Each structure stands twice: as structure tokens, then as C-alpha cells.
Amino acid sequence: MLMRILAGGLIGGIAGGLVVGAIESVTTTPLILHAEQFEVKDVASAARILLVHSDAQGAAGEGGGLTRTLFTFLATVLVAVGYVWMLLAAMFFKGAEINARTVVPWAVAGFFAAGLAPAMGLAPELPGASAAALEARQVWWICTAVATAAGLAAIFFGRNVAWVIGGVVLIALPHVIGAPQPAAMESLVPAELAGEFAARSLVIQALVWIVPAVIAGYAISRMKPA
Amino acid sequence: MNQQTATLSHATSSSRVGIAALVFVMGAFLVFGTGFASPQALHDAAHDARHAMSFPCH
Predict the structure, then answer these.
(1) Which among A21, A83, A93 is the nearest to B16, CB-wise?
(2) First and final C-alpha spacing in chain B
(3) pTM beyond cutoff 0.95
(4) pLDDT tens, A116-140?
(5) Which of A50, A71, A114, A215 could bridge across to A12 with cysteines, CB 3.0–4.6 Å?
(6) What InterPro entries is this protein classified in (chain B) (predicted)?
(7) Which of residues 20-49 of B touch A (CB under 8 A)?
(8) pLDDT tens, position by position, B33-48
């Protein structure tokens, strides 16, 4: 079973990640490139940003963006494999049957935990938007995803109403505490661009959970038990 | 007979938990390495994907 899960997750993650990577290259990446034009216009932080982005842009600049595009595909595939393995592990742990149909509610739950819930406090952001310290945001993001996943599990698998209440509290808690916010809400990026990006990013996040999971579920259901 | 069945199901369930934990940790490792790890090379390579999937980035 271990091999079926690992192989199915790899198949789903690679195939699904490539599909989502292709969608990214026509939805979110053009907006990121557009936003970076505003980002480097700001003289005060240009030095820092050039430092941060010199490798990515240097590689992209010479190769017509090919290297950068390939790395984006690779990173998307890695995240897709990671998410789908975590999802399959949770399903296997619960003894759930795994096929293209049964993975969908689990993938939607994953999107709620790692997509929608963190977006409540930290909206998907373009380069150039103001934000609080990176480490604080990363910690809040991870804690929110874990709390939401645990809360959903408590609600769906809890034995009585106490579990449901506990689950709701867990899901609400990170938002009551609140995400780390920047001192001032300012951005070099036009609001229209930022809004468009947030919407597209949420769609990408839904897809990166659902598409690889469905492909993996289909692949696993077609494999002969080892 | 009963004892044997109990032992068998205990072994099966502990290996199930082991497999689930192993696969879960491997998945989390991939997500963390791609979405969160701070080394500059990882950040630069994953930059556009981090933004697209809304991992906190720089």
C-alpha cells in the first residue's frame, strides 16, 4: 500500500502540477511580472529588492524567462506532490477508500485549510505590497493551516457536539489572534492588479489541491493491490 | 484464535499509522522546502510559484 500511495501521489502531483503550472503561466505569473515593474521603480527599496530578486531576474533576463518558467513549473509540481501525499496519508490513516471521486472532499478540505483560511489574514500578495516580517507571517500561515485542518477533522470525525464546538473554536482561533500586519497599508502595486492577483491565486490554490488529488485517486484505484 | 486475530489487526493498524505518518512527513517536507525554506537559491527558484500559491514571500 505504501508503494501505491507514493506512486499514485507522484503521478497525480507531477501531472496535476504541470497542468496547474501551465495555468499559472497565463494567470498569475504575468501579474507578478507586471507588479515587478512597479516594485523596482521605488528607489528607496530598489537596492534591497534587486538583491532579493537578482538571481531570479538575472536567470530570467538572459534566457527570455525560460529558466524562470521551468523553475515555476518545478516548484508547482513539488508543492502538488507534497499536498497530495499529505492528503493521501490522511485518507489512508482514516481507512478511507481512495479513488478519483472520494479524494474530492478531502482536497476541498485541504484547500480550505491551506488556501482559504490563511488568505483571510494574509491575502495573496504581489511583489511590492507591504507586509509584516516574513517569519511572523510564515508562522501564522502554518499555524492557521494546521489549526483549520485539525478543526475540520474534529467537525467531520468528532463523536459528539463537543468535538464540533472544539473544531469551530480551532478554526476561528488564528483569526481571533489575527495575522501579522504591516505598520502601514501601502503598496507600490495598483489595487486593481492586487485584487485581480488575489482572485487568481485562490483559483490556483483550489486547483493545486483538487487536480493532482483526482489524478492520484484515479491512478491508485487502477493499480493492482501489491 | 481470538488472540491471534487481535495481534494481527494490531500489527496491521500500527503499520497503517506508520505508513500514513511517513507519507505525511514526506509531503510536508516537500511543501516546506518549496514554500517556506529560506535559502536564497530556493526562494529565487520557487519565487513565482510561492506568490501564485500564496505562501508568504519576502
Answers:
(1) A93
(2) 61
(3) no
(4) 999 999 999 998 888 888 999 999 9
(5) A215
(6) CbtB_put (IPR012667)
(7) 20-24, 26-36, 40-41, 43-49
(8) 999 998 999 999 999 9
